[in-house]
Amino acid sequence: MRIEIRGARVVDPASRRDESASVWIGDGRIVAIGAAPAGFRADETIEANGLVACPGLVDLSARLREPGLEYRATLESEMAAAAAGGVTTLACPPDTDPPLDEPGLVEMLTRRASGVHGTRVHPLGALTTGLKGERLAEMVELAEAGCIGFFQGNAPLPDNATLLEAMRYAATFGFTVWLRPQDPALGRGGVAHEGEVATRLGLAPIPAIAETVALRTILELMDATGARVHLARLSTGAAIELVRQAKARKAPLTCDVSVYHLHLCDRDIAGFDSRANLAPPLRDPSDRDHLRRALAEGVIDAVCSDHTPVDEDAKLVPFAEAQPGATGLELLLPLTLQWGRECRLDLAQTLSVVTWRPAEVLGVAAGVLAVGAPADICLFDPAREWIVKPEALASQGKNTPYLGQRLVGRVVRTLVGGRTVHAA
Amino acid sequence: MTARGDSLQVDGEGRLRHLLTTEGLPAEMIRRILDTADQFVSVSEREVKKVPLLRGRSVFNVFFESSTRTRTTFEIAAKRLSADVINLNVGVSSTSKGETLLDTVFNLQAMDADMFVVRHAQSGAAHLIARHVKPGVAVINAGDGRHAHPTQGLLDMYTIRHYKKDFSRLSVAIVGDILHSRVARSQIHALKTLGVPDVRVVGPKTLIPAAAERMGVAVRYDMQEGIRDCDVVIMLRLQNERMNGALLPSAGEFFKCYGLTAEKLSKAKPDAIVMHPGPMNRGVEIDSPVADGRQSVILPQVTFGIAVRMAVMSMLGSPA
Question: I need a surface site. Which of A89, A378, B161, B314 has the fewest CB within 10 A?
C-alpha cells in the first residue's frame, strides 16, 4: 500500500520540521517528505489541507483494563480510543487483575493487542508479585516477554528495604524502575490535596510532603544502587524542584505528568465532583502552574493521558469512595494543544512532550516523522472544536472532569505502520 | 468554589431546596431560618406541641452512621410538624448487603419519601444524594464525614443570637478537634456569613486542618490566649479514638492544655457563654463545674435545636 498525504502541515518535533509538504508512505514506512520519490504511484491519496500531520502520539500510561477488568473496558474499546486519540504507541501499567507479574500474562496481552492491529502496546511489568510489595517479580522473564520497564502502579511499596532491593535487582540488568512517589503512611486514607479545599470539604488529605518524602528516598536509593528511574505522575512543584536538582547532577532520571494535572487543581473537586478524584490528587493551583512551566522547560520529560476507564457506578458514590481516574486517551491531544497555546509554545515544541520525548523515556523507536521511520502518523484538525460527550468517546470509560466541555483539536486520521486505524 | 453547592441548596427564586452545608448559604437565608425557629420555640412551650405544617408528608431519617441523639431531635422536630417519620439505621442493614448509597436512597424514594435526613460517614454523601433525588424531594444533611452538620451550626447561631443579639461585635472561640469536626466547619461558615469579625480556632497543631485561616479564622495554639476576651466559647467533642494515638498523647494531657476550666474561662469576658454540641466528655474537653455553671448554655442549645430543625423542615417541606 502506497500512500500520499497531500497538503498537510508536517510537524516533526524531533527535527523541528514545521512546513507544508506531502508525506509519502510505502511498505509501512515513510519514504519521503516533500517531493515524491522517483516512480512513486500512490494507491491512496489523503487530502490533508488544513490538517497537521505529526508523529503518532506516544502515551506513557494508558490502562487497557485487560486482563481482568473487562467490565470497565475491553482491549478492543481502548485500542479504538487510542487510535481515535492519535496515540500510536502506548505503555500500559501492570495494575490489571491479576497484575502483569507473569510472562504468560504479558505474552497474552501483547498477542491480543497485536491482533487488534492498532496502536503499539508496550506493557510495564509489575515490580513485585501481585504488586503486593513483598517479592520481586521475575523481571528478566518479564522483559523477555516484552515488558519495557517495571512499575509498582499506584500501590506504594510498604517499606524501603523492598524498594532498595527492587532497584538493585533492576539495575543489575539495566531495567528502568517506574515509581509514583507517595509515602504510604503520609498518604494513608487520603483522597484530596492537603489544603484549603480539602479542609473546607472535610476530605482526608494527602499532603504534598507525601510525594517529596518518597521522592527524596528514591533519589537516595538511586545514588546507592545506580538504578535508572522513571517518576510517574508527579503532582507537586516541590517534587519538580527535586527532579531539577537531580537532573542537574546527571542522575539517570526521567519523569512525566498527567495531562489533567496540567490544567486542573484542587478547586476542581469543589462540590465533591468525583470525576475529578484522580491519583495523585489534583493539587494547589501553584503546583499546577509549576508543572506547566517545568514541562515547557523540559524538566518534565513527557505528558501522558493516565487513561483510566472507570465505569459510572464507581463514580456515583461519595467522593472518598469513588475509584480514582479518568478517561484520557482521546483528550490527550486537545489538552496538550491547549497547554501549548496557553504557554505560547510553537506546535513542534508543544507536540514534543507527546511524541519523541516520551518515546525516549520508553527507549523505543517512535515519535518521529522522518524518512525511514515507521509510518505512525496522527492527522489532526487543530481548529476543530468538539464537545466531550459520552457518545464522542470511543473509550468505554466516559468519566472525565471535562465532560460537557468544549475542546479544540480533533484527530481526523491515525495511521500505524501505514495502515489507517482510525478515520473520523 | 461553592457555586455548585449553592445552586443545589437554594433555587432560582431564593427558596431553600436542600440544606447541605452552611457554606455559601446567604445571610438572609440564615436569618430567615432563625426567625422561623423563633416561632417554633413557642410551639415547644405549648401544651399541645404540634402544628400541622407537614401533615401527610413523609420524613425519612436515614442514618448510615448511628447517632441516637441527633436522630431523635430530627424525629421530634418532624413529629411536632405532624409529619410521618420513618427511622432507618442503614448502617446495619443495606450497606452490609452491598447496596450502594444511591440504591438505598432510590428504594426509599420509591416509598414516596418527601424529605431525607441523612447522616453518613463520608464527606459529600448528602451532596451526592441531593444531586440525584427527584425534584421536590428535599435532603437535610445531618452530618457527613468531617464536612458539615448544618443544622447544628444553625442551632448554634440561634443560641448565640438569643444570648448576644448582635453578631457584628462578637469574638467567638472554637476549641478542640477542629480537624475532624463537621460541627466546627458549619459554625465557622455561618459565623463568617453573619458578620462575626473575630472567629478563632484553638487546639494543638495536630488537630487544626491545613489552611484553616483561609476559612477566615485566626488560629491559636494557646488556650488562654485563644479564649481571651471572647463572648462565646464553643468546646468541641473529642472523639474517643483521637485521645490516645499519634494526634494526642492522652485525654489527660488534652484536658490540661485545652480543657475548659473555670480558671481558663476567667480569661474570656465575664458574660461569655459556653457552648458544646454534645455529647460532652466531662473532664476531657470541659470541667463539670463549667458545664453545669451559670455561663453554660449547653442545655438551651438542645432545646433550640428542635426549633431550628422544625424551621428547616417547614421551609423545605412547604409547597412551592
Answer: B161
Q: What is the pTM of this model?
A: 0.94
The answer to whether A306 is a known catalytic residue is yes
Q: Is the dihedral of CA A287, A289, A292, A295 positive or negative?
A: negative
Q: Name the DSSP class of B282.
A: B
What pLDDT was estimated at residue B274? 98
**Angle formed at CA A297 by CA A296 and CA A302, multiple of 5 degrees:** 60
Residue scoring higher pLDDT (A155 or A283): A283
Q: Which residues of chain A neighbour B214 with C-beta distances below 8 Å?
A: 196, 199
Q: List, in order, residues 6 or more apart from A298 with CB less than 8 Å away.
A: none
Residue of B nearest to A196 (CA): B211
Q: Which of A4, A78, A87, A91 is nearest to A41 (CA)?
A: A4
Q: Number of C-alpha atoms within 13 angstroms, CB side, residue A244? A: 14
User: How far is residue B133 CA from its own chain's centroid?
Assistant: 23
Distance CA A308, CA A234 (A): 17
Q: Which helix (H) or strand (E) holds A219?
A: helix A208-225
The helix/strand/coil state of B147 is coil
Contact between A355 and A88 (Cβ < 8 Å): no
Is A199 an 8 Å CB contact of chain B?
Answer: yes
Q: List % helix, strand, coil for chain B (3-state, nearest 5).
A: 45, 15, 40
Closest CB to A202 among B132, B145, B211: B145
Q: Does A404 touch chain B (CB under 8 A)?
A: no
**Where does the pLDDT of residue B2 fall: very low under 50, low under 70, confident under 90, or very high at 90 and above?**
very low
Would you say A315 and A265 are in contact if contact means Cβ atoms under 8 Å apart?
no
Digit-coded pLDDT (tens) for B151-188: 999 999 999 999 999 999 999 999 999 999 999 999 99
Residue (of A66, A76, A134) closest to A100 by Cα position: A66
Query: What one-character DSSP code corresponds to residue B91?
Result: G
What was the pLDDT predicted at B7?
Answer: 80
- The confidence score (pLDDT) of residue A66 equals 83
Is residue A329 pLDDT above 80, yes or no?
yes
A318: nearest CB among B1, B3, B101: B101
3-state secondary structure of A212: helix
Please state, rounded to an integer, the average pLDDT across all residues of chain B.
Answer: 93
* Other C-beta atoms lying within 10 Å of the C-beta of residue B97: 7
Q: What is the ipTM of this complex?
A: 0.93
For B95, B118, B140, B141, B151, the CA distances from B309, given in Å and listed in that order, are: 27, 13, 10, 11, 6
Residue A347 to residue A337: CA distance in whole angstroms: 8
Distance CA A54, CA A12 (A): 6
Do residues A316 and B102 make contact, with C-beta atoms less than 8 angstroms apart? yes
> Tell me, what's the pLDDT at B240?
80
Helices H / strands E in chain A, number of each: 12, 19
Helix locations, A226-346, DSSP H = 237-248, 259-263, 285-297, 332-342
In this structure, what DSSP letter does residue B222 have? -
Q: A49 burial class (0-12, 13-18, 19+ CB within 10 angstroms)?
A: exposed
Q: Which of A306, A311, A313, A376 is catalytic?
A: A306
Q: Taking Cα atoms as reference points, which of A180, A179, A182 lies closest to residue A225?
A: A179
Residue A421: φ, ψ to 5°:
-110, -10
Rg (C-alpha) for chain B, rounded Å, is 19
**A376: helix, coil or strand?**
coil
Q: Which three cell numbers stand for residue B210?
A: 491545613
Nearest to B156 by CA among B132, B183, B118: B183
Burial of A297 (0-12, 13-18, 19+ CB in 10 A): exposed
Query: Which residues contact residue B113 at a Cβ distance below 8 angstroms, ignoring those fewer than 6 apart?
Result: B58, B59, B60, B86, B137
